[in-house]
Amino acid sequence: MVLINPNTSTATTAMMTALARRALGDAFPVRGVTVTRGPRMLTDPAALAAAAPEVVAAGLRAAAAGDCAALLVGAFGDPGAELLRAATDVPVMGLGEAALREAAAGGTPFGIATTTPLLADAIAARVTALGLADRYTGLRLTAGDPEHLSARPELLLDALEHAVRACVDRDGARAVVIGGGPLGDAAEELRTRCAVRIVAPIPAACGALVRALQR
Question: Is the pTM of this model over 0.90?
Answer without folding.
Answer: yes
